[in-house]
Specification:
3-stranded antiparallel sheet; binds glutamic acid; globular; Aspartate Aminotransferase, domain 2; Aspartate Aminotransferase, domain 1; binds 4'-deoxy-4'-aminopyridoxal-5'-phosphate; 15 helices; 12 strands; alpha/beta
Amino acid sequence: MNIHADHRYAINLNVRGIQPSATLRINELSNQLRSEGRDIIKLGLGQSPFPVPERVVEALREHAHEKDYLPVKGLKALRQSIAGYINRRERMKCDWEDVLIGPGSKELLFILQLAYYGDLLIPRPSWVSYAPQARIIGRSVHWLPTHAENNWQLTAEELDIICRDDASRPRILILNYPSNPTGCTYTDEQLLAIANVARKYRLILLSDEIYGEVHFEGKHKSIARYYPEGTIISTGLSKWAGAGGWRLGTFIFPPELRPLQDAMAIIASETYTATSAPIQHAAIAAFDGGSDLDEYLHHSRRVLKVVGEYLHRRLTDMNVPTQKPEGAFYLFPDFSAYQEGLERHDIKTSPALCNTLLEDTGVAILPASDFGFPPDKLSARLAFVDFDGAGALALSGGSYSDKELNDDFIDEACPRLKLAMDRVEDWLIKL
Ligand code: PMP
Ligand code: GLU
């Protein structure tokens, strides 16, 4: 049957022809292959390897009975807790009313684009979902040029060049750091320079800081310090509290953007109503913080740093250069040194590279094409999350508490990551 001839299949043209999100597809494919008995090393989906901190889980248990619909913008006590968290971290003075809670920051990003009529500006590479969200809503996407020598980071100059053509055009710029997919972050000087351009063109600056707490040195700073009147901070529980599946995200608005926040709340009220009540109650424990959470974050960062550095070293030694990560749990390796060998196997694109690698070695990673590059760019994203996070935290705080984490730690805590590197190396040698 020709589905296009049947009006029951009159799927919105903005959705027709696009696939479910790459991160979720690779996860489901990896799980399916595992269930068929294949030994898959899952470096595709970027899911925190660490468990939700025990006190936060306990808070969820205590609030399992909460059954009422909550206010659209979120539970007041949670909004207060998040305002306090941001003020502590960023030395800002935001108010609980500046906070909006949603079922994941991904959903908030989507309703932001629905509520605001403007072009989307994103650096190349960027996380897989920003551009498809814009496409679904029918907004234009402008990929901002970046360069490998500059860690694929946006510069104030390039941003200015794009904006100056049509200076008063409404635009949303998304800046995500530490970055998914590179693990790199921006210096204060870079942030200040970008903030100045954003102010010049009155951009809405969506600062996606979902990996802020997993900056390896705990030194993340928000660009909101430099462009407070136009910056929305986006964060949540998914990456630093191991709670991706809980689906809780938050935006913190400047008072100047209250009308935009209100417009998003109208959309929320007509769609998801409010975020899950027990989850919101439990999230207060996470955002209030405490010495146990400081300890949890200290060890999470220590583990991610040593793992990121180990993988960076292994890949560099294989002649697969990658930026040295400074936060989050991603690397963006460049396989182009193997172009000739890959072509001999008819591998000319990043999707072909990732498919063949998965088929031959069981190592699942995502192609650069999912992050905004043309298919012939032979890079990929590796999410270094296939290890037992609880075990790694216990080792870091136990037998390694007074010594440096090293290769022995990797052997003990992350054997599958080492195995992934051995398999990739072997595969490349044999090309
Ligand atoms: N931004 C980035 C850069 C991400 O990697 C993710 C993936 N979790 C999100 C936003 C969305 O996170 P969540 O919806 O779980 O808050
Ligand atoms: N953000 C994670 C990633 O980039 C996964 C979750 C998602 O994409 O929604 O892999």
